[in-house]
Amino acid sequence: MSENNSNDEIWRQVLAGDNQAPAKLRHFFKQFPADPRCRACNSPFRGVGGRLVRLVLRNGPSKINPHFCNACYNHLVANPGGAEVEMTLLFADIRGSTTLAQELGTTAYSRLINRFYIAATHVFSETDAWIERLVGDQVIGLYLPGMAGTDHARIAIHGAEELLRAVGYGGPGDVWLPVGVGVHTGITFMGSVGTDSGMRDITVLGDAANTTARLSSVAAAGEILISDIACGHSGIDSTGLEARTLQLKGRAEPIDVRVAYVDSLVAVSR
C-alpha cells in the first residue's frame, strides 16, 4: 500500500470511528483520577494526571472540540490525506449580517459575533461535533461517526435546536441574533489540503457540504431546514413538520426538506 493510500485509510478509520483508541491505552489513562478527559482515549485534561500527560505527551484539549485531545487531531495532521465518509453537517448563518454590521458599527458588531462564536462553540462541544469553522457570519459543525457516533444525524438536529436556543429562540427573552440553520446528511470528502511548503488545513468537499451551505443560506431567521435524507437517518418524528421542496442554486435536482423550529422537534434529545 502506498503512503498516500495508507494515510487515506488512517483518515477513513478515524472519521468513521473504526480506529478507536486501544483498550489498553484507554485503561491506562483511566487510572489517572482526573476529569474531564478525552472522550476517545480517556486522556485526562486536569488534575495531576492532566499535568503529567501534558508534560510527557504534550497533550491537551483539541481545537476541533475541547472534549477530545489534540493527539487525535495531530494524528490526522501528521498523515496528510483524506477520505469519504457519511456524516451530518450543520451550517448556521446570520441573517442580514451586512445591515446589522452597518447599524451597530464595527466594534459592537465584532462583540456580537464573538458572542455568537462562543455560543456555537459551546453547543458544538457539548454535542460532539468537529468544529469546522467559525468565520464571518457563519459557523459549521461536522457530526462524524468517529466523534458523534452512528446516531450523528439525530445529534446534529439536536445541536441545531440548541444553537437556536442559545441565541434566544424559544426562551423568555428577546432573540439577540437572527440565525438560520441547514442540516444535511451525505457522503463527504474530508481531508487535509495545503502547499508544498508544508502549510496545511483541513476541509470538507462535495455535494453534501455544498447542499448544507445552500440550505443555511435560504433558511429564514429561526428556521432549521433539515433535508429529508437527514430526517430519515435521524429517526425523528417529522410528520408534524412543514414539508418544502427547494430548488437550490447550483444544484440540478430539487431537494425535499422539513422545516423545524425550537421546540417543534420530537425525540431529538440525547
Q: Mind explaining what this structure looks like?
A:
With 270 residues, this protein is α+β, with helices and mostly antiparallel strands. It folds into two domains: 3-77, no CATH class; 82-260, 2-Layer Sandwich (Alpha-Beta Plaits), CATH 3.30.70. The chain is built from ten helices and eight strands. It has helices at residues 3-16, 23-30, 47-57, 70-77, 97-104, 106-126, 145-148, 152-166, 207-218, 228-234; strands at residues 82-94, 130-135, 138-143, 179-194, 200-205, 224-227, 242-246, 255-260. Strands 1, 2, 3, 4, 5, 6, 7 and 8 form an eight-stranded mixed sheet that branches. Helix 5 packs across helix 6, helix 6 (106-126) runs antiparallel to helix 8 (152-166) and helix 8 crosses helix 10 (228-234). The protein is globular. The mean pLDDT is 86.
